[in-house]
Amino acid sequence: MKNFLRLLRYGIPYVLQMLPGVMLLAMVGVFDTFRVLLLQPIFDQVLRPDAPEGPIYLGLPKSPWHFDLRSLIPPAIHMHNAWHVVACALVLATLAKGICDYLGTYLVNYAGFGTITDLRNHLYEATLRRSSSFFHKHATGTILSTLINDVDRVQNAVSSVIGEFLQQFFTFVVGLVFVIRLGGHLSWALVLFIPVVITSARKIGREVRTRTRSGQDKLAEIQNILHETVTGNRIVKAFNTEVWEVIRFKTAARRLFRANLRSVRIQSISSPLMDTIGAIAIALFLLIGRNEILHGRMTMGLFGAFIILLFKLYDPVRKFAYFYNSFQQAMGASSSIFGFFDTEDDVREKPHAIHFKRFQHSVKFENVNFSYSTEEGEHQILHDINLEVKAGEVLAVVGPSGAGKSTLVNLIPRFYDASAGAITMDGVDLRAMTLGSLRKQVAQVTQETILFNDTVSGNIAYGQSVVKPDLVRKAAQAALAHDFIERLPQGYETVIGEKGFRMSGGERQRMAIARAILKDAPILILDEATSALDAESESLVQEALANLMHGRTAIVIAHRLSTIRKANRIVVLEDGRITAIGPHEELLNTSPTYQRLYSLQFIDRAETEVVTAPGVRTQE
Question: CA end-to-end span of the chain, whole Å?
Fold first, then answer.
């Protein structure tokens, strides 16, 4: 019920469409029942040759339901024959029902689709604003399944089903009122069937809700496999694992198949069960009604209208099981949707956070620790980090794999928050700033270049609301990307494909550098920006990086000597601790860890330089 009320809140902006739609669908029920009531005068007066001329009564004699059908026909239309009156009333009622049905269904679906559109937009916005840890905890396929499949389930219930449900509901309510009124003491038998219908529907609905959630989870598993194999298709081909991946996919598809069958098995019980209950009820009324007619307590027309209305009630009751199942499916799907909304972010912006203008002096790490929780407990990555990065400085961070280098630099734009200690920028704690103003201070170029399926110009100007073409061109020139962009079929307006697959690794990196140049952030983070490039591409990228780093504070994670040697200081990180800080030459003499890293990773790039340091072999 809580999730249902939350869904209703998304429909508040569409009340002006929903309320008229509901009233029009209520009129559909009225006109539909009215057409059935016309059976009474048809059997009692129109089809009886011996019927006397006079008022054409509709309803029980001597009751509030007793009125002359002629009073519904406009006075200008003079019709004395009963057939003419009934035929005219039937046509007018059908036309009115059709108009109300069309307009009511349109307005209700307008409100339903609008509600789901707002829900989907809010979910997408909330997902994008989640902290980085959220995307580590949830697989991409699971996120996509919630954004697409779970929302689709809710949409089916809220937009597609709700219009038909309201129409059937009002038809049922109006029909039930007349069934009770026309049937008199016969109607007490309905009470016998109400508990059976409600109990059966609730039990089936609970099972449907559980099975739907299970099926959605299995579908998310398939989407995870699809995402992994499509994005990693080169690895699949390189390791010749197509058959293994197909088997893995088929196994997951079989689990989804079984989950869907279990759900269908539960849902398919509804219709036969309602059919059986309805058949028993109608058979009972036919038996009792025959005696009523024989004893003169009901006319043939009155009983005919009563039994047809009873049949009309049976159809909504049968469909209510389907509606209830759809509703339970939507509630099962909405639990995942609102679970995303309710996720507590590790990184949150404080109320009344300040808007930081522009970095000028230094970034300080003061006794910073960082850890994350696992099922086994807390896993600490960084220990007591104390570090100051001054404006205009180039600081390199080196260390063995898993030492915490990327984690350290990712704390600056607050992709994560420190578990203890503080990080300040110009003396202001990062947690006191708005996230938007903080991240404007930082540009990043990483080993994995992320480009979008957009034009070259759109990728370079990504994140900029309005950018002049000349500025995009200048950024590309500074990144040494202008020449290869000009050779593309449409130049800067060429669509580069998903993740820029139409470009080489070096070209993608220079595009990313151009994007960072255009952002013009005072702090630059380079995370293994050249480690995946060949020598020729690296040479061009290094020159582009030099243009990018000019006049900026740069924090560089790299394995290449050419980048490290240009740093003012080098931080050696080992097991999450800073073990040494200093320039290259000093660390070669004082830091065993740096000596080992240098000999393993940098010595082949030293070319003709002669290095003399303890523990390091001299090379010409």
Answer: 77
